[in-house]
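Full entry
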Amino acid sequence: MKRNVFATRTPKPAGTFMKYTALILAAFISLSAHSAEAKKKKQQIQHLSGIVQKCHDGDTCRVLVGNKIAKIRFAGIDCPELSQKYGKEARNYTESVIKNKYVNLECDGKSFDRLTCTVFLADKNVNLMIVENGWAYDSTKYSKGRYLASVDTAKNQKMGMWIDRDLTSPYCYRHKTNKKCALDQSYMP
């Protein structure tokens, strides 16, 4: 008996189509979540150490690691730019603490061509020291607010740049046309 190739098939109930669609969607979501988890695992902390050669500004230094120079961006903080009010003072403070000294670095990413690191001098967190002495803002977008209390304390004690209550944040200095900065020059994301 020959089969009729022009015969129509009986359509499957709509519920079957929905089940397959739901299964495919669930598999896609599962793979996406696994991919995001794998990406987080790749961003593990890298431990380095070396001697600080010089600092470009208050939150960026060059460190001799082995026989190579690494550009280090202090994670979670933002100091005034060199051309900004208190920029040179912030750089001078950072250099006075760590220049020509052996530091340990806990690096968790990159910012442009720089490693983003928490810097330690012996057991002291240098990032925190810079904030406590009034030379940096907490960059909450990256620090998750880790340094906010220390910024408030430095402001209340009028430490470093906080002697001046009319400051422009480094973020607003770099992003002059930002709408939030137009409303508040101290805005930091």
